[in-house]
Amino acid sequence: FLLSGCSYSAKVTQVSKEELAEYNPKDFSAPSPAHSSIERIGNEDDLIIQAIYYEMNGNYKKSNYFYNILFDRTGDMEYMFRELTTALYAGIDSKNVSKLEKFIQNNPSNIQLKRLLLSFYINKRENEKAKKIGLELISQSGEAIDYELNASPNILSGDYQEAVNLLSIAYNKTYNEDILTKITILLANYLGDIDGAISRLENHRKM
């Protein structure tokens, strides 16, 4: 959409559903489970330092490499969660997704880890699994981030009206302009409701 003069005029631009489904996994905090009491291996401190160093500097792929080694050598679940988180940030696969699924089955109240799993499902286009766990998150937390996350698999599977419904709830909780942009693009580009998109923008401007 382009704005001209004092009112909105809609100029429809093509935005792919993959772009619309994008979200920032860093918008929700990483899980921080309790430390394991497993006896530390000899060079574990060196590996931890390297993992944390690369993570702090945004080199998630290298950080993931070291967390992988740490988890393989110790079996410490904290390292598994960090491996999964850095894999997500790096945009790479993780061999531990099935272990995360099993952990969540035994710990269904852990919202942060469910968000992590949902993000992997979205990246793998496992839309039905993502929708299922997304509904669980919404019922547990009611937070805007979970409505926005759950919109992504609906966009990717072509359920655009449901995505608009979910994003609208997230917007009403936050009045976030990025969420509003997604809503208006979905309305105009994918649902053909240009008037509805303009109305949303005008209502936001009046706030």
End-to-end Cα distance, whole Å, is 19 Å
Secondary-structure element sequence?
A: EEHHHHHHHHHHH
- Which structural class should the secondary elements be placed in? mainly alpha
Q: How can the largest sheet be summarized?
A: 2 strands, antiparallel
Beta percentage is: under 5%
Q: Which spans have pLDDT < 50 for at least 5 consecutive residues? A: 1-12, 33-42
Total of DSSP H or I helical runs spanning 4+ residues: 11
| Average pLDDT taken over every residue | 87
Number of strands: 2
Oligomer: single chain
Spatial strand sequence of the major β-sheet: 1-2
Helix content, binned percent: 55-70%
Rg of Cα set = 20 Å
The global form is elongated
Offer a few descriptive terms.
207 residues; 11 helices; 2 strands; 3% strand; disordered N terminus
